[in-house]
Amino acid sequence: MPAHMLQEISSSYVTTTTIRAPPSMGEQKLEKMSLYSAEDIRPEMKDDIYDHSYQDAEGPTPKLEYVWRNIILMGLLHLGALYGVILVPTCKFYTWIWACVYYLISGLGITAGAHRLWSHRTYKARLPLRLFLIIANTMAFQNDVYEWARDHRAHHKFSETHADPHNSRRGFFFSHVGWLLVRKHPAVKEKGATLDLSDLKAEKLVMFQRRYYKSAVLLMCFILPTLVPWFCWGETFAHSLYVASLLRYTMVLNATWLVNSAAHLYGYRPYDKNINSRENVLVSLGAVGEGFHNYHHTFPYDYSASEYRWHINFTTFFIDCMAVLGLAYDRKKVSKAAVLARIKRTGDGSYKSG
Ligand SMILES: [Zn+2]
Ligand SMILES: [Zn+2]
C-alpha cells in the first residue's frame, strides 16, 4: 500500500488510528477497500458493515401477523404518557429535574451503551463505565443489550431489506414502532442467525443483564423512577407514575425510534447518496447525538456517529468525559481526509465545508 493512501488520525485527545482512504478504482475493488478500511480501524468486528451483495428474495411480502399483547401494552403506555403530559404543569420542580435526568441517563444507556459500545464497538470501556451503561440501558427498557445489538447489526448489514428489523422501505410507521407490534419477517431471523455475536456472548455483564432482564426492567424503568419522587420530596403518586415513569420512558422510546424512521426518510445524504439514512438535526437533538445518520451508516465504526464531535452530540461529550477519567479508551475516529474522499465519491452534493 503506497504511503499516500495511508492517513493518520492524530489528535490530542483521540487514540491514533490508521485507516486507508478509498482511492478511485473499479466498483468491486472499492467495495473490498471499504471493507479493509473498516477492518483496519476496528479489526475486532465487521458484521455491522453494509453488505451490498444481499438483496431481498423475489416474491410477495408475507402477511403481517399482529402481536396483540405488544399492541395493547404499547397503546396503554402511550395513553399513560399522554395523561403525563397533562400533569407536567402541576409537577413539583424536583420531579421535573428527576424526569429530565432519568431521560438523559437512560438515553445514554442506549446511545453510548447499546449502540456505540456494544453494537458497534467504536470504543472500549472499563468495568465501572460498563456497569453504569448496563444500568442506564436497563432504565431505558428497549430489550436487553444482546438482543438490541443483534437487531442493530442486522439493521446495518442488511439495511432496507426484509432482513433489516425496521426496514424503512416499509414506511414511517413500520420503521418507527410497527416493527415491534408484528411478528419478525422470516429474513430477520434467518439473516440475524448468521451474525457474529461472539463478543456479546463472551461479555459476562451483557449475559448477566439478559438473565435477570425482566425483573431488572421492572425495577429500573418503572418502580424506581416512581418511588423516588413519591418518597423523597412528597410528589403525588400519580405525578410520579405518569410523568417521571411513563412519560419519560415513552419519550426516550420515541426519540430512539425517530432514528429508525425520520433519520431514514428525511434529510440530506452528504456522505453516501446510495443509502437511505440521512442527516437529521432534529433527531440528533432528541436522541442525544444520533441523528447524523447518513454519516453513521457510512462509517459505523466512528465513536462519534458523526463527522463532528460535540456538535449536537451529548453522547460524544459524555464518552470524551469518560475518556478524561480513564474509563473510556481506544475511541475510533475516521480521518477528515477519508471523510472528504468519501463525500467526493458518493455524496449527494449537499456537503458544506467549514
Ligand atoms: Zn448504528
Ligand atoms: Zn439506521
From TrEMBL:
The chain crosses the membrane at residues 71-90, 96-118, 212-231. It catalyses: octadecanoyl-CoA + 2 Fe(II)-[cytochrome b5] + O2 + 2 H(+) = (9Z)-octadecenoyl-CoA + 2 Fe(III)-[cytochrome b5] + 2 H2O. Keywords: Endoplasmic reticulum, Fatty acid biosynthesis, Fatty acid metabolism, Iron, Lipid biosynthesis, Lipid metabolism, Membrane, Metal-binding, Oxidoreductase, Transmembrane, Transmembrane helix. The keyword Protein biosynthesis does not apply. One of its GO terms (molecular function) is palmitoyl-CoA 9-desaturase activity. GO terms for cellular component: endoplasmic reticulum membrane. GO terms for biological process: monounsaturated fatty acid biosynthetic process; response to fatty acid; unsaturated fatty acid biosynthetic process. The histidine box domains are involved in binding the catalytic metal ions. This is stearoyl-CoA 9-desaturase. It comes from Ictidomys tridecemlineatus (Thirteen-lined ground squirrel). The gene is LOC101964310.
